[in-house]
Design brief:
Low-confidence stretches: 61-81, 109-114, 125-129
Distance between the termini: 78 Å
Structural class: mainly alpha
Helix content: 55-70%
Radius of gyration: 28 Å
Strand order of the largest sheet: 1-2
Shape: elongated
Number of helices: 18
Mean pLDDT: 76
Strand content: under 5%
Length: about 350
Amino acid sequence: MATKQLFQILLKNRDGIKKGITKVQDIVTEYLSTTGARTISPDERFTINKEFSELAPSNVVDDVFGDFQGLQDDAADAVTDTPFTDKVSKQMGTKLRGDETFGEIMEMKESDQGLASLFPRSENAKDFIFDQKYSNRKEVADFMRAMRGAGIKNEDVMGVIKDKTNFKRQPAYDYFGSDKPKEVVDLAEGKRAATSLARAAEMKADTAIKQELLANLDEDIATRGPDWWRGTGFEEGPMGRESVGNLLESITTDINNGVIDDLIARGMDEDKVFDIMRYMGRDVRERLKYDPKGFIQKVTEELEFNDIKYDMTFWDNYTDEILTRIQKPEPRFADGGLV
């Protein structure tokens, strides 16, 4: 078990760890000098690892796959007594860091191939600059860190790396004249998937139905011009609708149907879902059919009254995105001014 002195040192240095000022070496050095110990134990290593993983900026915690090599170096490579980690690593056929959560271990266990086996460490650490395995690991590690920074959930990050990562064979050339083909990691497909996931996280599209609607919206954003969004004015309203009113009614209908489909997909009884939405009354829906924002607020209140936990944030964001895009810019000199 990590000692009381270590906890005190970590607590005292928390602000420095968060700002990236305090490094692993600083903690290890202070702890060893304070206690007179020659090495750190596996539990103490785990405690320091966990604190830096949770608090430190990404430039301090460099290797999301690794076994906190910097900490081992600081401890003079004395931390080698990890029988449990070694046993599990052998059983799973993949190298573990030693600080995985139970969920991470189970996720790797259920996979045919762990991340560490997909991106093995370099056998030639001294020549890492020219080592393709090192380059692959670093590129993937940077990509994973960027995805997490964009708010993408860890299980989605892992899914992108496992399912959307490919390798390309290309000739290698080094100072020894070798032309042996090398496996170069290809993240193009993964980055496209990550872009969609980041957009979904940003818009709070946390269900398949919301994500499908967002995908259609993003396709229109990518392919349609200003005239389509705002309407030409010649018997053609915004987004190809007959009028603004027709578009607003369509948005309200999408929200109504989307909420119903989401709740049913979550396992709620279909009759109960329709009863809740119907309880608002036909007059309310008729009154708010041109006011999607007001309809969102009414649905939110109704769901809260029935003690149903459902996040309506996406529908707010979705509506705002459309309303912003259909607005026509104000004339440059609309307010007049001095001549």
